[in-house]
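Researcher: For the record, we're logging two predictions in this thread. I'll number them. Prediction 1 follows.
Model: Prediction 1, sequence and structure:
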Amino acid sequence: MDLPTNYKPFNIIEVKFKGSRKDFYINHEHAYLEMGDLVVVETTTGGYDIGHVSLTGELVRMQIKKKHQKLDDITRKVIRRATPADVDKWKAAKDMEWETMHKARTLALNLGLSMKISDVDYQGDKTKATFYYTAEGRVDFRELIKKMAENFRIRIEMRQIGMRQEASRLGGLGSCGRELCCSTWLTDFKTVSTSAARYQNLSLNTLKLAGQCGKLKCCLNYELDTYMDALKDIPDDVDRLETVIGMARLQKTDIFRKLMWFSYPNQENWIPLDISRVKEIQKLNKEGIKPEDLKDEAAELEPVQATKILDYENVVGQDSITRLDERQNNKKKKKRNNKSRPKQDDAGVALTPSSPVAKPARPAANNQRREQKSGPQNPNQRREQNAAANSQKREQNPAAPQADNNQKREQNTAAPQTDNNQKKEQNAAVHAANRQKREQNTAAPQTDNNQKREQNAAVHAANRQKREQNADAQAEGGESGNKKAQGSRHFRRNKNNNKPKPNAE
């Protein structure tokens, strides 16, 4: 579709970040951007962030009106399209979120804070992280911020969110089997009360009515307006109707078919009545008039048509849990049926023991081949044939086996004798070598011992001379040593400086 010549494209785009967070930015350079492109945008606290383009063009103008924002309030701009370096840095920041969240949880537990940190969102430039937490009341987390700043070395922002916002950020699957509405398209979280379940005639079971966030499901409000419109025609305060037979109590109300079921006490049958007739009986009861029986005024119900089973439904049989067992049972039944069936001839007549039928004669050539292959069926005849064949073989080759056996015997007798002689010679040579080694070993220690004894005798003689010289020296220096000892009695050694010190007498 061609645009007018004087048309100017809307220069504001919508960018989506982690956890369904969206915001509007000005495309001041009028760069061509499509949905899903990664762009680098400005932030309010400095630095930059990276997100995906979610909307462009006139649809953004409609979203701005829906969120009741003004065009003048949108001041942040798109810096550029994300480069590969920006994308690598952004992915590295996202990989740190899981570990950072668990470390922050341990710090909160150590400080004893009653809060649950559910998610962490890193900025694209890895300079700031936003921690989302849930708590029942206000939490003093000033000490926690100090410890997290020391551990992570980044700017930290704490945001308290509700249970529904937590479920929308984390995502998941609902009881319907689809992804949660709050994490896909739902942006406005309206209050849901139990009256919405009462108007829709739902059982007040908290396990069925509550979602993953622990609150009532948001989908209870989807059809509430339709039920409220249908309830306008249904009369109020019609718990019972008075008749001549007795009091009939209300059991059930079908809003869309506009029927109300009543029953008498001690009776199991329910009587359907149109809403118009119920209003008439209610007016009669106020005037003091009682109808005879409600069964005479029961509404005619249309017969319930059986649902048509389509051809493409459960064709393969994969919906059945016991489909494999059924196949095995069917095979067994087929085998049993084949065994129990009587055999039939070519004309289709069943064969019984009382009416045997002659089998067709086989050709003579086939019988001869079988006799050649298998031989006669009598075992005695087979033995005689085998014995005759063996005797013929022996007569044909009577001398060959004997000559072969004689040669083998001569070879077997000569080979061991030569082997034994060789082994005996080898053993004799080994014994002679061992004998020489023993003689050498016995002679060597004797010569070594004699040398050692002579050396020890020379050492003892030298030591004896030294002792005698020392004794003479001590005898000569005895007198001079006594004089020195007398002069040194008046002095003692100091432990600190090891100098002589006179005794104080």
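Researcher: Logged. Prediction 2.
Model: Prediction 2, sequence and structure:
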Amino acid sequence: MFSDPSLAPSRGTTMQRTQSIMEFQQLMKNDAKSALRYELDKLGNTAEKEQRDVIKKDLENFEALFKRFLLKSGPSIIWNNIKPPPEGYIKSYKEISKMGLTSPEKHLLSKLVVVKLNGGLGTSMGCTGPKSLISVRSGLTFLDLTVQQIESLNKKHEADVPLVLMNSFNTDDDTNMILRKYASCHVKIHTFNQNRYPRINKESLLPIAQSCNDPLEAWYPPGHGDVYECFLKSGLLEKFVKEGREFVFVSNIDNLGATIDLHILNMLVNPPKDSKPCDFVMEVTDKTRADVKGGTLIEYENKLRLLEIAQVPKEHVDEFKSVSKFKIFNTNNLWMRMQSIADLTTSGKMEMEVIDNNMQRLGNGTNVIQLETASGAGIKNFHNAIGINVPRSRFLPVKKTSDLLLVMSNLYELKNGSMVMSSKRQFPTTPLVKLGDEHFSKIHKFLGRFADIPDMLELDHLTVSGDVTFGKDVTLKGTVIIIANHGERIDIPSGAFLENKIVSGNLRILDH
């Protein structure tokens, strides 16, 4: 490249240049920290007087999170240092359930608190307001089903398991209005809010918000890793420990499979004689091709750790997605000893990786930085943390209308607020359903496409793309693919029986 050797940069020159770039970047980071400190002080001073101390404390916590983000250089893990979890750290649910219950159900339930993560909105499915208030089955919402589940257990075993909702500023008002309808239920319901942090302009590295009263778009809830700190500062954790409760079961409110499991609770309350008491349990389940982006458990620096796809170097993403190498993934059903949460949080030892959710952009096109943490990442801080490989039935999330179609169908039966796969289905796997975005992704459009939900008891795979509608009493079996070409429409007639068929844009029905 350099014909004259004298023109080629020397190794010393290259090193000097690299060093000067690093020094410049460090100066920029120092300036960003100073500027942020000044802007956050200004922002805190705009709060109402009675809330000012609380808001300033929240902004201090955000500043600490942002400093950790700025100090981060390079990948958060060294790929070659990853090891599979040590033998015995991923326990089989079958083995745990074989032990039976060594205490009465009432005693076990007296040790438990249920926390549901309720900070999300239903915007991805075209709804306004909290996602937990979306109707999923027989006119019942996620929240209705959750209350039913716990109430049925409380009544059956004369127990008093409380339900706690971690809301965000996006969901708190609407949720509290709805909670009034459960006043006569046999469940005590509590709420606390997760933090409200300012979104940061990606170019200036300064807050979008100029005042604490600025529109909601300038703020965000920083992921469910907030649960540890916010549960503690709400005072609820201390209250429950004083009542003699020991464990909390944390899960996403849109996971219809995340019900109280007495076998896991029994293992925590009455650990086997040959094992140490557990402080943290993460429910994992076998990965399928539909779960390639889910976080997995690894051993790293002699600790059990959650590895998320965002932490994986680009050149190893395909390897991470491999079902053969990483066989399990995190369901985000987490069981924890409450005293351990209190000890780790108050001592400042609850460390979690900072996730930059860099897909965020405001309505006016401004790119923003949104820093988050994930609750499962807390696993590395707890003593004797383990994973339990649970049946797939404990992971039934509703993230898209394709998931909603499954839980609305005759594949599932509703029993005391729990979704149970129909005994009429001959094999326990869940069908793979893909619905086209344009016509099916929003709930109001999705519901308008079905006169009623098809019989899917023997369905393996359904793909629907384009302008397609379904009449009444339609049966789908095996693999069914329905594709309407652009500008064309396919109406599946009432009473249609499709088994291993491809229905194409010219309305021909072909054997698959």
